[in-house]
Design goal:
heterodimer; A: mainly beta; seven-stranded mixed β-sheet; globular; B: mainly beta; four-stranded antiparallel β-sheet
């Protein structure tokens, strides 16, 4: 079965750190770009970060640049997001998403999503 | 950054009604637009990609159109299982940006 399973969310104090993981199965993980998208409670979707299939290209939203790091271990079919210097406005459900790179564009769309993991930043 | 403006932000319609949601990009994105459906408590799912291509398995009552800056998704006959929030997203350029969402309810 093709699926993504996130883990690592939880309650963290402002300024703290957290590492999210996303375990992929059912497809050739190394062949696909992967991304993180978040959704604050009751709000819309916000792209956070993407990484190419071969790990060489990484992209970040301005809101997280310098604080979050994306990485992947293709031998373990796992995507990671390291969240540092967390703020209250980082509180959200974080979704891992298999990403489609479209020729002629600089971006991706997301054709498979995980169930999400909740990160709550609060003292 | 490319801004995506969706309207309306919410709508209420009867079963069987035709429903149209619009999405406007702040600059030309060709057909590099996708529509997602998100049901309460669930992750989003792809409905339409490339502005007008229905994903396999999505009911044919859904359709998408548009190019450049103006896009629409239409549900020709609203069904109870279509209750969800719908989002557009441009993938023409980074940063990737979403519309604010349209919440569809049954009247």
């Amino acid at each position: 079965e093709v699926q993504l399973l996130e883990s690592g969310g939880g309650l963290v104090q402002p300024g703290g750190s957290l590492r999210l993981s996303c375990a992929a199965s059912g497809f050739t993980f190394s062949s696909h770009a992967m991304s993180w998208v978040r959704q604050a409670p009751g709000k819309g979707l916000e792209w956070v970060s993407s990484i190419s299939g071969r790990n060489s290209d990484k992209y970040f939203a301005d809101s997280v640049k310098g604080r979050f790091t994306i990485s992947r271990d293709n031998s373990k079919n796992t995507l990671y997001l390291q969240l540092n210097s967390l703020r209250a406005d980082d509180t959200a459900v974080y979704y891992c998403a298999k990403s489609v790179a479209v020729p002629g564009t600089w971006g991706y769309y997301f054709d498979l999503w995980g169930q999400g993991t909740l990160v709550t930043v609060s003292s | 950054d490319i801004q995506m403006t969706q309207s309306p932000s919410s709508l209420s319609a009867s079963v069987g009604d035709r429903v149209t949601i619009t999405c406007q990009a702040s600059q030309d994105i060709s057909n590099h637009l996708i529509w997602y459906q998100q049901k309460p408590g669930k992750a989003p799912k792809v409905l339409i990609y490339g502005a007008s291509n229905l994903k396999t398995g999505v009911p044919s009552r859904f359709s998408g159109s548009g190019s450049g800056t103006d896009f629409t998704v239409t549900i020709t006959s609203l069904q109870p299982e279509d209750i969800a929030t719908y989002y557009c997203q441009q993938y023409d350029n980074l940063p990737l940006t979403f519309g604010g969402g349209t919440k569809v309810e049954i009247k």
